[in-house]
Amino acid sequence: MQVEEAQIIEQIRKGNTNAFSKLVTKYQDVVFSIALKVLRNREEAEEIAQEAFIKAYRSVHTFQGKSKFSTWLFTINYNTCISHVRKNKLRTTGIDQIQAIDEEEEADFGEFQQEDRVKYLEKALKQLSEDEYLLIVLYYYEDQSVEEISQVTGLSESNVKVKLFRARNKLHRIICDLMNKEEYSREKIRQ
Question: Domains of the chain (ranges plus CATH)?
Answer without folding.
Answer: 1-96 (1.10.1740.10), 98-191 (1.10.10.10)
